[in-house]
Amino acid sequence: MKRKIKVTLIALLMMNLCAENNFAQTNVQTPKKNEEKSTFNDSKMDWWKEARFGMFIHWGLYSIPAGVYNGKKISGLGEWIMNKGKIPVAEYMKYAAQFNPTKYNAEEWVKMSKDAGFKYLVVTSKHHDGFAMYKSAHPFNIVDATPFKRDWVQEIADACKKYDMKFGIYYSQAQDWTEPGGAAEGGHWDSAQNGNMKDYIDNKSIPQIKEVLEKYHPTLLWFDTPTGMKPEFSRKITDVLKQYPNLIYNNRLEGYRGGDWITPEQYIPTMGYPGKNWESCMTMNDTWGFKTYDSAWKSNKELIRNLVEVASKGGNYLLNVGPTSDGAIPTQSINSLKAIGTWLKTNGQSIYGTTGTPFSYLPFGRCTSKKDMLYLHIQKWPTNGVVKIPIDNPIVKATLLAQPKFKVVSSKVGNYIQFKLPKNEIDTFTTVLAVQYSGELKITITEPIPSLKKVATASSEATKPSLAFDGNGKKGWIAKDGEKAGWLAVDLQKPTSIGSISITEAGKADKFVKRFTLEYKDGNEWKTIFEDKTIGAGYFKSFKPIVAQEFRINILETSKTPQLKEAQLYYDE
Ligand code: FHN
Q: Which atom, in ligand 1's list, is nearest to the CA of 289?
């Protein structure tokens, strides 16, 4: 069963696959023939791939109401308040007269982002509300319509130049809720929005795209929500973009395809996207634009582990901050940025310029790689003080980045090289062991994830249950409409010792499941391994290993038809 396989370095570069919020990764998948041409290996993507960590800034007029309109809390994202609260155009536009962010200082923001370890910035030049955060020929802009009268995008572009930070621009090319003809998800709610989208594209979207390109020379453009975009619209825009051969842009111009990278939002894809460039954009709490009452702040540990997970799957992590209307970055964000920066100062070499892991599964955590280096990210400190990896190479050096003076002894034991660590955990966020090996990397155990692509069944099916185990992460299993509970089972084809599970419920951060159990089949009976409440986008749990052939996730309570996008079971090691 355990085969010895020699992995070439080229293959290694491709092997940045793994599974959702767990420590597992699988072997190479080659993009299918009919998939779009990937710019993975274009040299214009080099800096972006090297960077691995970018900062998103969502700042606009929506930071003034900050989630509250007419004294009422408006549900949803802070920057969507106009749409969700159905605020009339004329009324929303009045916020401009109040926008005066006196606390804002572009250089401080850029220095802060530099200290946090970001390698590029992406700023909202115009979000769906249509307000330009720069001096535009269109009058609804920060210089002409506010008492502030300063060009934010210009100032931050200048500061980026000064501090050698790559600068990128977000532009909402399709949705525009204050301009006649601009698209609006869910439909228009004010007659002032009526108009022709073609005219909007020709008269506002394209001229503004040209403006930001000509004025601020961004390295990248970040398009968003291609609502209503037609091929004729995007063709006109790409004609403009072609004049900037080094410019890169994401896959949201029209549909969620094309462009230079894929943009999973608020989740880390199950297997990454092997052979493609991708970037998970995520918030620090639940909103992009500032909301006074969103206190769902992620812990520093979660943020750092997200960065590590994304890098271990070969992607970039674009982490958002949403400044307040007076120009301050929320304290919780500042504190987290400091913690991330401190961690990266010690461990940055394990993130920047790395590719994903070559291993299918590491029970102690994750791995990134670079040339003759493997960076082991230890997230479960071993009780016996030993971590091991299935390779057969001479070890040149093994260094704990956070405790370089500690002498890590390595030895070969069977199919593994093992490393003896200090008794106590060094860094609860993630401790990095940098392993330098010699020769071509030889991986000794390449067993795939046990549940990957295995036969699945379900209580009922509107879509195939096997979609949840296909490792693709795009589509999943959905039970028949109207069901209030349901289960999804997988047959591993032989009794297997399973010690952990990862589940992605629905993509983004949705949490519909309210109670579920993981069960295994013992004879004819299903027995519970554990019961839990919510799942969300990146559920991972380890448990006392169980040997069985069939396992199932039993959704007992949910607010939506039972459905799971992806689930995988992992060996006990
Ligand atoms: O609607 C936007 C949202 O406000 C935010 O800008 C995010 C960031 O990726 N993009 C859209 C939702 O996909």
A: 4
